[in-house]
Amino acid sequence: MVRKRGDVVPIERIEARAYEIPTDAPEADGTAEWDSTTLVVVELTAGGTRGLGYTYADASAASLIHGTLAEELKGHDVMDVPARMVSLLMRVRNKGRPGLVAMALSAVDAALWDTKARLLDVPLVRLLGAARDWVPVYGSGGFTSYSLERLGEQLSGWVEQGIPRVKMKVGSHPDEDAKRVAEARRAIGPEARLFVDANGAYTAKQALAMADRFAEAGVVWFEEPVSSDNLEGLHLLRQRLPSGMNVAAGEYGWDAIYFRRMLGAQAVDVLQADATRCLGVTGFLQVDALCEGFQVPLSGHCAPSLHLHVACAARNLVHLEYFHDHVRIEQMLFDGARSPVKGALTPDLSRPGMGLDLKRRDAERYAL
Protein backbone atom coordinates (compact mmCIF):
# COMPACT_ATOMS: atom_id res chain seq x y z
CA MET A 1 0.00 0.00 0.00
CA VAL A 2 1.40 3.42 -0.97
CA ARG A 3 1.43 5.81 1.98
CA LYS A 4 0.18 9.38 1.81
CA ARG A 5 2.09 12.41 2.95
CA GLY A 6 1.54 12.96 6.66
CA ASP A 7 0.85 9.30 7.50
CA VAL A 8 2.49 8.15 10.73
CA VAL A 9 4.03 4.70 10.29
CA PRO A 10 5.34 3.23 13.55
CA ILE A 11 8.41 1.02 13.43
CA GLU A 12 7.33 -2.49 14.37
CA ARG A 13 10.50 -4.58 14.33
CA ILE A 14 14.28 -4.25 13.83
CA GLU A 15 16.38 -7.34 13.21
CA ALA A 16 20.11 -7.64 12.59
CA ARG A 17 22.26 -10.58 11.58
CA ALA A 18 25.92 -11.06 10.72
CA TYR A 19 27.30 -13.15 7.87
CA GLU A 20 30.95 -14.13 7.35
CA ILE A 21 31.89 -14.76 3.74
CA PRO A 22 35.30 -16.24 2.81
CA THR A 23 37.31 -14.37 0.19
CA ASP A 24 38.03 -16.14 -3.09
CA ALA A 25 41.77 -15.94 -2.31
CA PRO A 26 43.94 -14.57 0.52
CA GLU A 27 43.92 -10.76 0.43
CA ALA A 28 46.18 -8.05 1.82
CA ASP A 29 46.83 -4.34 1.58
CA GLY A 30 49.57 -2.14 2.97
CA THR A 31 48.57 -2.62 6.62
CA ALA A 32 46.29 -5.69 6.90
CA GLU A 33 45.64 -9.25 5.74
CA TRP A 34 42.30 -11.11 5.69
CA ASP A 35 40.58 -14.21 4.33
CA SER A 36 36.93 -13.36 5.05
CA THR A 37 34.58 -10.37 5.16
CA THR A 38 31.75 -9.87 7.65
CA LEU A 39 28.47 -8.36 6.49
CA VAL A 40 25.92 -7.09 9.05
CA VAL A 41 22.39 -6.78 7.63
CA VAL A 42 19.59 -4.78 9.26
CA GLU A 43 15.96 -5.46 8.36
CA LEU A 44 13.41 -2.93 9.59
CA THR A 45 9.64 -3.44 9.43
CA ALA A 46 7.07 -0.63 9.50
CA GLY A 47 3.54 -0.55 8.14
CA GLY A 48 3.90 -4.16 7.08
CA THR A 49 6.81 -3.21 4.79
CA ARG A 50 10.35 -4.42 5.30
CA GLY A 51 13.42 -2.44 4.27
CA LEU A 52 17.09 -3.19 4.70
CA GLY A 53 20.46 -1.63 5.28
CA TYR A 54 23.88 -3.08 5.91
CA THR A 55 27.48 -2.43 6.85
CA TYR A 56 30.77 -4.29 6.67
CA ALA A 57 31.76 -4.51 10.33
CA ASP A 58 32.46 -6.88 13.19
CA ALA A 59 29.60 -9.24 14.01
CA SER A 60 29.16 -7.55 17.39
CA ALA A 61 27.49 -4.63 15.57
CA ALA A 62 24.45 -6.88 15.13
CA SER A 63 24.02 -7.18 18.90
CA LEU A 64 24.13 -3.41 19.33
CA ILE A 65 21.50 -2.97 16.62
CA HIS A 66 19.25 -5.74 17.86
CA GLY A 67 19.42 -4.40 21.43
CA THR A 68 20.10 -0.73 22.11
CA LEU A 69 19.18 0.73 18.73
CA ALA A 70 16.05 -1.36 18.26
CA GLU A 71 14.77 -0.36 21.69
CA GLU A 72 15.13 3.31 20.77
CA LEU A 73 13.33 2.94 17.44
CA LYS A 74 10.33 0.71 18.14
CA GLY A 75 7.00 2.49 18.00
CA HIS A 76 8.37 5.69 16.46
CA ASP A 77 7.52 7.04 13.01
CA VAL A 78 9.76 5.63 10.28
CA MET A 79 8.92 8.55 7.97
CA ASP A 80 10.86 11.06 10.08
CA VAL A 81 14.36 9.72 9.47
CA PRO A 82 16.23 12.79 10.82
CA ALA A 83 14.33 12.58 14.12
CA ARG A 84 15.12 8.89 14.41
CA MET A 85 18.83 9.52 13.89
CA VAL A 86 18.90 12.35 16.43
CA SER A 87 17.39 10.07 19.06
CA LEU A 88 19.80 7.24 18.18
CA LEU A 89 22.82 9.53 18.44
CA MET A 90 21.68 10.66 21.86
CA ARG A 91 21.14 7.04 22.93
CA VAL A 92 24.71 6.00 22.06
CA ARG A 93 26.39 9.06 23.57
CA ASN A 94 28.21 7.05 26.25
CA LYS A 95 28.98 4.04 24.05
CA GLY A 96 31.63 5.75 21.91
CA ARG A 97 30.20 6.99 18.62
CA PRO A 98 33.17 6.40 16.28
CA GLY A 99 34.01 2.98 14.91
CA LEU A 100 31.69 0.07 15.55
CA VAL A 101 28.82 2.22 16.86
CA ALA A 102 28.96 4.46 13.79
CA MET A 103 28.87 1.40 11.53
CA ALA A 104 25.80 0.06 13.32
CA LEU A 105 24.10 3.45 13.06
CA SER A 106 24.99 3.62 9.37
CA ALA A 107 23.25 0.33 8.64
CA VAL A 108 20.17 1.43 10.56
CA ASP A 109 20.04 4.80 8.78
CA ALA A 110 20.15 3.05 5.39
CA ALA A 111 17.35 0.73 6.52
CA LEU A 112 15.23 3.69 7.64
CA TRP A 113 15.58 5.40 4.26
CA ASP A 114 14.99 2.17 2.36
CA THR A 115 11.83 1.42 4.34
CA LYS A 116 10.48 4.95 3.87
CA ALA A 117 11.04 4.79 0.11
CA ARG A 118 9.37 1.37 -0.08
CA LEU A 119 6.36 2.65 1.85
CA LEU A 120 6.05 5.48 -0.66
CA ASP A 121 6.68 2.99 -3.50
CA VAL A 122 9.50 5.04 -5.03
CA PRO A 123 13.18 4.33 -5.73
CA LEU A 124 15.35 5.89 -3.05
CA VAL A 125 17.01 8.21 -5.56
CA ARG A 126 13.60 9.67 -6.43
CA LEU A 127 12.91 10.30 -2.74
CA LEU A 128 16.30 12.00 -2.26
CA GLY A 129 16.28 13.82 -5.61
CA ALA A 130 18.68 12.84 -8.37
CA ALA A 131 21.71 14.89 -9.38
CA ARG A 132 22.60 12.35 -12.08
CA ASP A 133 21.15 9.26 -13.75
CA TRP A 134 24.21 7.03 -13.37
CA VAL A 135 27.44 6.80 -11.38
CA PRO A 136 30.94 6.22 -12.85
CA VAL A 137 32.83 3.43 -11.08
CA TYR A 138 36.43 2.33 -10.74
CA GLY A 139 37.47 -1.30 -10.40
CA SER A 140 39.20 -1.85 -7.07
CA GLY A 141 41.25 -4.78 -5.79
CA GLY A 142 44.79 -5.53 -6.93
CA PHE A 143 45.71 -6.83 -3.49
CA THR A 144 49.35 -7.01 -2.43
CA SER A 145 48.89 -10.75 -1.86
CA TYR A 146 48.26 -11.26 -5.59
CA SER A 147 50.90 -12.53 -7.95
CA LEU A 148 51.87 -10.23 -10.79
CA GLU A 149 49.90 -12.48 -13.14
CA ARG A 150 46.70 -12.31 -11.08
CA LEU A 151 47.14 -8.56 -10.56
CA GLY A 152 47.34 -7.97 -14.29
CA GLU A 153 44.42 -10.28 -15.06
CA GLN A 154 42.10 -8.58 -12.56
CA LEU A 155 42.89 -5.01 -13.54
CA SER A 156 42.85 -5.67 -17.29
CA GLY A 157 39.60 -7.59 -16.85
CA TRP A 158 37.87 -4.46 -15.58
CA VAL A 159 39.22 -2.41 -18.45
CA GLU A 160 37.97 -5.02 -20.91
CA GLN A 161 34.52 -4.72 -19.27
CA GLY A 162 34.51 -1.02 -20.09
CA ILE A 163 35.64 0.36 -16.71
CA PRO A 164 38.24 3.01 -17.63
CA ARG A 165 39.78 3.43 -14.16
CA VAL A 166 41.24 0.79 -11.81
CA LYS A 167 42.91 0.73 -8.39
CA MET A 168 45.54 -1.53 -6.84
CA LYS A 169 46.99 -1.90 -3.35
CA VAL A 170 50.56 -1.00 -2.44
CA GLY A 171 52.60 -0.74 0.75
CA SER A 172 53.08 -4.31 2.02
CA HIS A 173 56.49 -4.59 0.37
CA PRO A 174 57.63 -1.09 -0.66
CA ASP A 175 60.69 -2.40 -2.50
CA GLU A 176 58.38 -4.24 -4.91
CA ASP A 177 55.74 -1.56 -5.38
CA ALA A 178 57.25 0.27 -8.35
CA LYS A 179 57.61 -3.01 -10.24
CA ARG A 180 54.02 -4.01 -9.46
CA VAL A 181 52.67 -0.64 -10.55
CA ALA A 182 54.65 -0.83 -13.79
CA GLU A 183 53.20 -4.29 -14.43
CA ALA A 184 49.71 -2.97 -13.76
CA ARG A 185 50.22 -0.23 -16.33
CA ARG A 186 51.47 -2.75 -18.88
CA ALA A 187 48.39 -4.92 -18.28
CA ILE A 188 45.77 -2.16 -18.60
CA GLY A 189 47.35 -0.29 -21.48
CA PRO A 190 48.12 3.41 -21.84
CA GLU A 191 44.60 4.86 -21.75
CA ALA A 192 43.02 3.54 -18.52
CA ARG A 193 43.47 5.64 -15.40
CA LEU A 194 45.56 3.94 -12.71
CA PHE A 195 44.98 4.50 -8.97
CA VAL A 196 47.09 3.23 -6.05
CA ASP A 197 46.07 2.81 -2.40
CA ALA A 198 48.68 2.50 0.37
CA ASN A 199 46.18 2.29 3.26
CA GLY A 200 48.47 4.54 5.28
CA ALA A 201 51.46 2.19 5.04
CA TYR A 202 54.13 4.75 4.08
CA THR A 203 55.87 7.53 5.94
CA ALA A 204 55.63 10.93 4.28
CA LYS A 205 59.20 10.67 2.91
CA GLN A 206 58.56 7.17 1.60
CA ALA A 207 55.37 8.32 -0.07
CA LEU A 208 57.13 11.21 -1.79
CA ALA A 209 59.79 8.88 -3.17
CA MET A 210 57.22 6.30 -4.28
CA ALA A 211 55.08 8.97 -5.94
CA ASP A 212 57.91 9.86 -8.32
CA ARG A 213 58.20 6.18 -9.30
CA PHE A 214 54.42 5.82 -9.66
CA ALA A 215 54.27 8.91 -11.85
CA GLU A 216 56.41 7.08 -14.40
CA ALA A 217 53.52 4.62 -14.79
CA GLY A 218 50.95 7.40 -15.09
CA VAL A 219 49.35 7.01 -11.66
CA VAL A 220 46.79 9.78 -11.13
CA TRP A 221 45.40 8.88 -7.67
CA PHE A 222 47.38 8.21 -4.48
CA GLU A 223 45.03 7.08 -1.73
CA GLU A 224 46.09 7.25 1.92
CA PRO A 225 49.79 7.61 1.16
CA VAL A 226 50.08 8.15 4.92
CA SER A 227 47.55 7.52 7.66
CA SER A 228 44.31 9.50 7.40
CA ASP A 229 45.00 10.63 10.98
CA ASN A 230 48.13 12.42 9.73
CA LEU A 231 46.47 15.52 8.29
CA GLU A 232 49.73 17.45 8.23
CA GLY A 233 51.39 14.66 6.26
CA LEU A 234 48.52 14.49 3.77
CA HIS A 235 48.63 18.26 3.32
CA LEU A 236 52.40 18.15 2.72
CA LEU A 237 52.04 15.41 0.14
CA ARG A 238 49.19 17.20 -1.59
CA GLN A 239 51.53 20.17 -2.11
CA ARG A 240 54.50 18.13 -3.32
CA LEU A 241 53.17 15.19 -5.33
CA PRO A 242 53.82 15.21 -9.10
CA SER A 243 51.44 17.30 -11.17
CA GLY A 244 48.26 15.42 -12.03
CA MET A 245 48.44 13.00 -9.06
CA ASN A 246 45.61 13.51 -6.57
CA VAL A 247 45.71 12.74 -2.85
CA ALA A 248 42.57 10.92 -1.63
CA ALA A 249 41.49 9.93 1.88
CA GLY A 250 38.49 9.90 4.21
CA GLU A 251 37.16 6.34 4.09
CA TYR A 252 37.44 6.01 7.89
CA GLY A 253 35.36 9.10 8.59
CA TRP A 254 32.56 8.55 11.12
CA ASP A 255 30.71 11.88 11.09
CA ALA A 256 30.63 15.38 9.61
CA ILE A 257 33.12 16.71 12.18
CA TYR A 258 35.79 14.27 10.97
CA PHE A 259 35.34 15.37 7.36
CA ARG A 260 35.22 19.06 8.31
CA ARG A 261 38.64 18.73 9.94
CA MET A 262 40.11 16.93 6.92
CA LEU A 263 38.79 19.51 4.49
CA GLY A 264 39.81 22.41 6.72
CA ALA A 265 43.37 21.05 6.81
CA GLN A 266 43.45 21.05 2.98
CA ALA A 267 44.55 17.44 3.25
CA VAL A 268 42.95 15.96 0.12
CA ASP A 269 42.27 16.67 -3.52
CA VAL A 270 39.37 14.21 -3.46
CA LEU A 271 37.45 13.34 -0.29
CA GLN A 272 36.27 9.77 0.22
CA ALA A 273 33.22 8.83 2.29
CA ASP A 274 31.67 5.46 3.09
CA ALA A 275 27.94 5.33 3.83
CA THR A 276 28.44 2.06 5.75
CA ARG A 277 30.58 4.03 8.24
CA CYS A 278 29.69 7.74 8.09
CA LEU A 279 26.10 7.46 9.39
CA GLY A 280 24.47 6.05 6.30
CA VAL A 281 22.53 7.93 3.66
CA THR A 282 22.06 10.87 6.02
CA GLY A 283 25.77 11.14 6.74
CA PHE A 284 26.82 10.71 3.12
CA LEU A 285 24.65 13.64 2.06
CA GLN A 286 26.11 15.75 4.87
CA VAL A 287 29.59 15.00 3.52
CA ASP A 288 28.42 15.97 0.04
CA ALA A 289 27.28 19.32 1.42
CA LEU A 290 30.68 19.86 3.02
CA CYS A 291 32.36 19.08 -0.30
CA GLU A 292 30.14 21.69 -1.91
CA GLY A 293 31.27 24.29 0.60
CA PHE A 294 34.96 23.47 0.22
CA GLN A 295 34.75 22.88 -3.54
CA VAL A 296 36.36 19.44 -3.23
CA PRO A 297 35.14 16.40 -5.23
CA LEU A 298 33.61 13.42 -3.43
CA SER A 299 34.23 9.73 -4.12
CA GLY A 300 32.15 6.89 -2.67
CA HIS A 301 34.08 4.15 -0.85
CA CYS A 302 33.14 0.47 -1.42
CA ALA A 303 29.67 -1.15 -0.91
CA PRO A 304 28.52 -0.14 -4.42
CA SER A 305 24.98 -1.52 -4.10
CA LEU A 306 24.28 0.44 -0.93
CA HIS A 307 25.82 3.62 -2.33
CA LEU A 308 24.22 3.62 -5.75
CA HIS A 309 21.06 5.64 -5.05
CA VAL A 310 22.61 8.15 -2.66
CA ALA A 311 25.59 8.53 -5.02
CA CYS A 312 23.14 9.54 -7.76
CA ALA A 313 21.79 12.19 -5.37
CA ALA A 314 25.22 13.57 -4.38
CA ARG A 315 26.01 16.73 -6.33
CA ASN A 316 29.80 16.61 -5.92
CA LEU A 317 30.39 12.92 -6.53
CA VAL A 318 32.93 11.98 -9.21
CA HIS A 319 32.90 8.18 -8.92
CA LEU A 320 32.20 5.13 -6.78
CA GLU A 321 34.52 2.30 -5.78
CA TYR A 322 33.58 -1.05 -7.35
CA PHE A 323 35.46 -3.11 -4.73
CA HIS A 324 36.13 -6.76 -5.54
CA ASP A 325 35.14 -8.22 -2.13
CA HIS A 326 31.92 -6.25 -1.81
CA VAL A 327 30.89 -6.80 -5.41
CA ARG A 328 31.20 -10.57 -4.89
CA ILE A 329 29.16 -10.49 -1.69
CA GLU A 330 26.44 -8.19 -2.99
CA GLN A 331 26.00 -10.21 -6.17
CA MET A 332 25.86 -13.43 -4.11
CA LEU A 333 23.51 -12.29 -1.35
CA PHE A 334 21.31 -9.48 -2.68
CA ASP A 335 18.72 -9.72 -5.41
CA GLY A 336 18.83 -6.46 -7.36
CA ALA A 337 22.59 -5.83 -7.18
CA ARG A 338 23.57 -3.99 -10.34
CA SER A 339 26.52 -4.51 -12.70
CA PRO A 340 28.32 -1.70 -14.53
CA VAL A 341 27.66 -0.92 -18.17
CA LYS A 342 30.23 1.22 -19.98
CA GLY A 343 31.98 1.95 -16.69
CA ALA A 344 28.92 3.13 -14.77
CA LEU A 345 26.17 1.84 -12.48
CA THR A 346 22.56 2.83 -13.08
CA PRO A 347 19.82 2.33 -10.45
CA ASP A 348 16.83 0.17 -11.34
CA LEU A 349 13.97 2.64 -11.15
CA SER A 350 11.39 -0.15 -11.38
CA ARG A 351 12.23 -1.26 -7.82
CA PRO A 352 11.36 0.76 -4.68
CA GLY A 353 13.93 1.78 -2.09
CA MET A 354 17.50 0.75 -2.82
CA GLY A 355 16.14 -2.05 -4.98
CA LEU A 356 17.79 -4.78 -2.91
CA ASP A 357 16.37 -7.91 -1.27
CA LEU A 358 18.34 -10.37 0.82
CA LYS A 359 18.65 -13.85 -0.70
CA ARG A 360 17.87 -15.60 2.57
CA ARG A 361 18.55 -19.12 1.45
CA ASP A 362 21.90 -18.19 -0.06
CA ALA A 363 22.88 -16.08 2.94
CA GLU A 364 22.02 -18.68 5.56
CA ARG A 365 25.13 -20.78 4.95
CA TYR A 366 27.29 -17.79 6.01
CA ALA A 367 25.25 -16.80 9.09
CA LEU A 368 27.08 -16.41 12.40
Summarize the model shown.
By secondary structure, this protein is an alpha/beta fold. The protein is built from 13 helices and 14 strands.
Please give a structural write-up.
The structure is a single chain. The chain is of the alpha/beta class and 368 residues long. It has 2 domains: 11-121, Enolase-like, N-terminal domain (Enolase-like, domain 1), CATH 3.30.390.10; 126-353, Alpha-Beta Barrel (TIM Barrel), CATH 3.20.20. It is built from 13 helices and 14 strands. The protein has helices at 60-73, 81-91, 100-119, 124-128, 148-160, 174-188, 204-216, 231-240, 256-264, 280-294, 304-313, 324-333, 360-364, and strands spanning 11-28, 33-46, 49-56, 135-140, 165-169, 193-197, 219-223, 246-249, 270-273, 298-300, 317-323, 334-335, 344-345, 357-358. The strands form 3 sheets. An 8-stranded parallel beta barrel has the order 4-5-6-7-8-9-10-11, surrounded by 8 helices. A 3-stranded antiparallel sheet has the order 1-2-3. Helix 1 (60-73) packs across helix 2 and helix 5 runs parallel beside helix 6 (174-188). The protein is globular, with a radius of gyration of 20 Å. It starts with 10 loop residues before the first strand and ends with a helix. The mean pLDDT is 96.
